[in-house]
Amino acid sequence: MSVDFDFHIHTVFSDGSMSFEEVLTALRNAGLSKCGITDHFETGLPHSVAVSEAHYMDLFNRFKEKARKSGIEVLLGGETGLGPDCLMLPAKVPPFDFLIASVHRVNWRHKSESDYWREYRTYIERGIEKGGFQVLGHVEGYPS
Asked: Does a structural domain hold residue 86?
């Protein structure tokens, strides 16, 4: 089996460690032909993208063009949270090609482990019912 793509990449604009340029170098070195940049866009999350949409899209589009010239297809994804009221998207977000919804935060204080997982599953079930995303992330759990 060969790996041809990575559709869950965070950059320095959220909780990743690489710039767009460094991501491009890593993609070339890995021989990947497709990727999805999925920085966090989530209300109340400290490592959510904090720059303006215009600035982010300008840098992303430059990266996308350089990647295209290297034979790499790039999609703009985003990752947001699922919470009690479902998607935790900010009011203004870029035009995503796809959206990952993940439970990143469950109030675990004063909860048993079974109550924690019950709440976690409830957020996922409500999110699936309401929709608005294409990919479910962290179904296995996420340390809050």
From this structure: yes
